[in-house]
Design a protein that fits this description.
By secondary structure, this protein is of the alpha/beta class. It has eight helices and eight strands; from the N terminus they run E-H-E-H-E-H-E-H-E-E-H-E-H-E-H-H. The chain binds D-xylitol-5-phosphate (DX5) and zinc ion (ZN).
Length: 230
């Protein structure tokens, strides 16, 4: 089956001192989204960036900013990211008190809403919220750091979510993107696509492969070629 494939470079592996230039370069190379990893040193053992940096990045690119919140609590930062120009906001269900309320809050602020599943988080959280989701994000590493190895159990989990999404859409439901995050490389992206993902976060694979001219066209060509072969 042909499906649209979106590539979302994660800024986590970018050169933070030259972030504007980095996001412009990946957009020029064909990025579909900017994946923006927010970590709070509480929900995950790392500390990254907040809404001020999102706001600073926003004018540098036209493509959507895909904010991945690895923070707890979630609700207090939703407004700030919406105002900072986030297009999608995803959060981990166990990091908020009221999942349904948080999804609604994100959509009320004009953003698309996503739910994120760690490798060991059960899919039951999807049971009552499919109609309120724009994206499901499966983690294929434990959240907190870039450059980790892809956890193979993410593949059967992707297939299970793909079935749920297809059944939901076949029954008249809204489209839902299926994003994968962690350890995505040129040599495994085709298998991941075949398992059902349509949106691929790639941090170290992209930002670790800068072309001699400072751009990223080479790695995008290799990722797209692998996806085309899937
Ligand atoms: C991990 C982050 C990922 C990470 C992906 O907690 O959510 O987005 O940056 O990095 P790579 O592609 O290097 O695994
Ligand atoms: Zn992420």
């Amino acid at each position: 089956m042909t499906r649209t494939h979106r590539i979302a470079p994660s800024i986590l592996s970018a050169d933070f001192a030259r972030l504007g230039e980095e996001v412009r370069a990946v957009e020029a190379a064909g990025a579909d989204l900017i994946h923006f990893d927010v970590m709070d040193n509480h929900y995950v053992p790392n500390l990254t960036v907040g809404p001020l940096v999102c706001q600073a990045v926003r004018p540098h690119v036209k493509i959507p900013i895909d904010v991945h919140l690895m923070v707890s609590p979630v609700d207090p930062v939703v407004d700030d990211f919406a105002r900072a120009g986030a297009d999608l906001i995803s959060f981990h269900p166990e990091a908020t008190q009221h999942v349904d309320r948080t999804l609604q809050l994100i959509r009320d602020r004009g953003c698309r809403a996503g739910l994120v599943f760690n490798p060991a988080t059960p899919l039951d959280w999807l049971d009552h919220v499919m109609d309120r989701l724009d994206m499901i994000l499966l983690m294929s590493v434990n959240p907190g750091f870039g450059g980790q190895q892809f956890i193979p159990s993410a593949l059967p989990k992707l297939r299970a979510v793909r079935e749920r999404i297809d059944a939901h859409v076949a029954a008249g439901g809204q489209p839902i993107w299926l994003e994968i995050d962690g350890g995505v490389k040129v040599d495994n992206i085709a298998d991941i696509a075949r398992a059902g993902a349509d949106t691929f976060v790639a941090g170290s694979a992209v930002f670790g492969a800068r072309d001699p001219d400072g751009g990223y066209r080479g790695i995008f060509e290799r990722l797209r070629a692998a996806l085309d072969a899937a």
